[in-house]
Amino acid sequence: MAPKILITNDDGLYSAGLKASYEALRGLGEIYVVAPAVQKSGVGRSMSIMEPIRVSEVNVNGIKVYAVDGTPTDAVIIGIHEVIGEVPNITISGINLGENLSTEAVTTSGTVCAALEAATQGSNAIAISMELPDVEKFELFFKPYDFGFAKEILRSIARVVLKKGMPMGVDVLNVNVPSKPNGEVEVTRLAKKMYKTRIEKRYDPRGRKYYWISGVERKEAEKDTDIHALKNGKVSITPLSIDLTANVDFDVIRSWFE
After folding, report:
1. pLDDT averaged over every residue in the chain
2. What domains appear along the chain, each with residue ranges and CATH number?
């Protein structure tokens, strides 16, 4: 039987990256595309448990897409348990418009967290993102981005995972493709932080304060990290585990309560 492939994202069903993923994976198996109906970047692994989720079957540029009125995590759960009816052989989240690097992305990115949810459900999972200037990120509609190299990377990794499965102890591969690739690939660890947090205070026409949370990208990056790889034109592949338990001596913490 042909392997079952679930594609999702956090940029919404009209994202050019979603179409690029479909094109990259075509022919590798039976593809199901289940994605948020609208832009849902930065929602992390949030789940709609206090309101109903509606799903519509739509056609986007010749691709059948199940549009989920919810979060990327909702889309994965609906995709696995309702649309496909079983755990897919592999779940692809992306290609995201904009890189997802460092420990910040692991907990805030809808793209990465959709892959984490898929892994929790038992699927092999890949999150893939492409570096873009800030002004180009979070776009809803099809734009003429060059996804050629990112599609090659995605297809090659997906083929290996479909054949061999994930390495022992790995639940998700977080893949980031640089805007100016040199053709090299590096297996990396997560950098600690990508942005220096910035709060911008403004006032509305009635004089009331409101805030924008943003960040200034850090210029320095440690070697062997995902940020360092991208800054040097390399594709970054970071193996992730859904087990966030700290690797420490538990007796140290137990001693606090003796």
Report:
1. 93
2. 4-191+221-243 (3.40.1210.10)
